[in-house]
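Let's do one together. I've listed all components of the complex below, 598 residues spread over two lines.
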Amino acid sequence: MNAIEVKNLRKEFKAYSSRSGLAGAFRDLFTRNYKIIPAVNDINFTVKQGEMVGYIGENGAGKSTTIKMLTGILTPTSGEITVNGMNPHKEREKFVQTIGVVFGQRSQLWWDIAVQESFRLLKKVYKVSDEQYNNHMDHVIKTLDIEPLLDKPVRKLSLGQRMRCELAAALIHNPPLLFLDEPTIGLDVLVKLKIRDFLKEINEKYNTTILLTTHDLSDIEALCERVIMLDEGKVIYDGALKKLKETMDDGKEVQFQFLQNVDLTQVTALTAGMPVKWELNEKEQLFTAYIEDQDELISQLISKVVSAYKIKDIKINETSTEELIRNIYEKGAVEVG
Amino acid sequence: MFYVKIFFQYMSQYIKTRLQYRTDIFVEFFSDLLSQAINLIFILVVFGHTQFLNGWNRDEIIFIYGFFLVPFAVFSAFFNIWDFNERYIVKGELDRILTRPIHSLFQIILERMELEALLGAITGLAVMLYAGLHLHINVEWYDPLLFIFFVIGGVLIYGGIFIMLACISFWADARTSLMPMMYNISNYGRYPVNIYNHIIRFVLTWILPFAFVGVYPAAFFLEKQEWFWYSFLTPVMGIIFFTISVILWNQGIKRYRGAGN
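Okay, and this is what the predicted structure of the assembly comes out as:
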């Protein structure tokens, strides 16, 4: 069964532009200029039950808008959404019973009262029985390690502590589908790791589908096999993260620092006949060789360089996911076979 | 049934929140009590100077005022939506509301309740008692029942109007400052409507029916036969206005655009 099905989904916003100057302000009183801007522009995708999908894109690419449509907060301009077999906006109250939502920048919990009181109220709101609650939440509380926080008011928690409680709060009714909008924003590495482990665990244990937006690509690398990439409201890539890396990989770079004085023409001459491109960072005397990702080529290059000159330092870099994504944004499209 | 249960859950949550700040609660309780007492004295002093107003005597006017305070207190306790635009639309808190399986308007009412405001109802009852004793009103067995119906009607009218005002935020971007103006207009309902000219009277009866929160229902207890018709219209108007406001709300929610983050 598909947890999420999206067909030709579109959301338009009217954006008003104001004219300049006082005279312009008066004119705006009567007729305003506006443009219709598609925040989400005819996107299609499906997510299977139990998948963990990373939904990425720059600020303003339409990620949050999509999530808000999928959770029934916003009504689409056109297109079809089926989530958990329902139309999120039409049957909102019944529908939200089957999803959990965490907005990294917004709290679900009551600010002034103890965490457990918030949980208790949410338990009533979602009509969870004591038995279900105990079975499920005992485990969640233990894994997220929030037991000692339960009797503290939310306003006294640190961001990391609060985020773990938020996550627990979103899972009170053990939903089969979880939306996480930037859940690790501003958290330290340890808390991030804990949250990732926890998400993996509930995914395995309950086959929970997770849709995650984040700017932290290490989250995506650690959790998601599949990514959907959005740019200017359009899906520009949908598929495995690994495949994206393979196609986009332009090769490796090898950096050298030498103990003696070497210039660019010398190294270029040295590797003549090999598919290598050299670059020099003058300030740090850093020589970078760009080559294709072939095992033999690397060793050939290194052996040639090392035998000719004394080296101080050598470094082999692979293009990081961050760089990869940046490249994609700059190019604006991905072509995957 | 579920909604009743949830109502009490939120109420206990509210009380717990208040109890978090121990000193605060005492200070607030006393200041509330004090302000109600001042209110009471103010009413007596102001109306001490009026004897007759277009066929109504001093005590009758005080009685109407006292009656008005009761639905107004209930309204203030549960329809704290005057800052709906800033709090829920601009800050995007409505996002959170919309991810929970309870009707959005009901959730906002629950979240924003301020039970202290109910103290005002006690002032109102005290004022009514004072005026009632002066007027020698006889209380029939059905009077308390009708009183409750009229109060509910009044609360629904008030609530309906303010919900409709809140709904404007769904259609217009700009922060509207209609709410304070509306509070002022609502005050006109505390006085006998036949002292105003026709247009104002018409407005207060059919368009912004604040007269149904004060004069009309109170007239019943004051045994003003000529107004009985209007008195019994109070719950009807309440239901009509509230229903319209909820329909409007449900339409508005579809137009909610969210706040960017």
